[in-house]
């Protein structure tokens, strides 16, 4: 079973920041938070991951709360091409298994 | 560019047929995975492999088998296809375990319809 809960869907205006929340209240101390997204008719694509500290790369920022029970993926300037399903995943570093939930469907509108 | 390719984008088979789904990666990755994706259920892991000739059951292995004779190729086999195996099948690969950063690279998927 997925260890994360996410809203089913969200909307965001083009050019605005998209903030996608994720709850992972049962996360263990050594488990990482990963984010993937899946654009229609494509396989999932890695976005970012983190353990305790906030992370930023060219695609997004990841904010993890101090108690690690929740996180937020931030797309700073959403574009129409960011319309996709976003998956928040908790991963045990001792395995390579990713357990996907049903994700958040983000719709970016003009 | 790293690449995971799957033999077909769309496949239609009849109930009872033996079906082979092929996946090839060009990144020299040790790990390979097969998932299926269904509406409302997300991606579910069927089988995975950490090395040539090695395989591990995922969460829903029933009705499937796999083969990994070469490092770059991981095949999913439906011995006798059934209508409840109609789904999108996704293959992925990643580098070796025990790494804090272990991105899985996914193929484009094969949409299988069993009639």
Commentary on this structure:
The complex is a heterodimer of chains A (110) and B (115). Chain A has strands spanning 9-13, 18-23, 32-38, 45-50, 55-56, 61-64, 70-75, 84-91, 104-109. Chain A is mainly beta. In chain A, the strands form two sheets. Chain A has a five-stranded mixed beta sheet with strand order 1-9-8-3-4, with no helix packed on it. The termini of chain A are far apart. The model of chain A has no long low-confidence stretch (mean pLDDT 92). Chain B is mostly beta strands and 115 residues long. In chain B, 0% of the residues lie in helices and 51% in strands. Chain B contains no helices and eleven strands. Chain B has strands spanning 4-6, 10-13, 19-25, 31-38, 42-49, 56-57, 65-70, 73-78, 87-94, 105-106, 110-114. In chain B, strand 5 and strand 6 (56-57) form a beta hairpin. Chain B is globular and about 35 Å long. Chain B starts with a strand and ends with a strand. Chains A and B meet through strand 4 of A and strand 4, strand 5, strand 9 and strand 10 of B.
Characteristic terms for this protein:
heterodimer, A: about 110 residues, mainly beta, 5-stranded mixed sheet, 4-stranded antiparallel sheet, globular, B: about 120 residues, 7-stranded mixed sheet, about 50% strand
Offer a quick outline of the entry.
Chain A has strands at residues 9-13, 18-23, 32-38, 45-50, 55-56, 61-64, 70-75, 84-91, 104-109. Chain A is an all-beta fold and 110 residues long. Chain A is globular, with a radius of gyration of 13 Å.
């Amino acid at each position: 079973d997925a260890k994360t809960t996410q809203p089913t869907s969200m909307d965001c205006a083009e050019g605005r920041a998209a903030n996608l929340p994720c709850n992972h209240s049962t996360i263990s101390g050594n488990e990482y938070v990963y984010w993937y997204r899946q654009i229609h008719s494509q396989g999932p694509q890695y976005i970012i991951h983190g353990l305790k500290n906030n992370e930023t790369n060219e695609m997004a920022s990841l904010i993890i709360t101090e108690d690690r029970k929740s996180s937020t993926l931030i797309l700073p300037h959403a574009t129409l091409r960011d319309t996709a399903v976003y998956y928040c995943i908790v991963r045990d570093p001792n395995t390579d298994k990713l357990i996907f939930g049903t994700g958040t469907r983000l719709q970016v509108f003009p | 560019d790293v690449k995971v390719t799957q033999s077909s984008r769309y496949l239609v088979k009849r109930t009872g047929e033996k079906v082979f789904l092929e996946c090839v990666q060009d990144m020299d990755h040790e790990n390979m995975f097969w998932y299926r994706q269904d509406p409302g259920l997300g991606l579910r892991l069927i089988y995975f492999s950490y090395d040539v000739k090695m395989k591990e059951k995922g969460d829903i292995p029933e009705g499937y088998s796999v083969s990994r004779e070469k490092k770059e190729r991981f095949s999913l086999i439906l011995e006798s296809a059934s209508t409840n195996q109609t789904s999108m099948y996704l293959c992925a690969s990643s580098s070796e375990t025990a790494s804090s950063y272990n991105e899985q690279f996914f193929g484009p998927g094969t949409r299988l319809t069993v009639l």
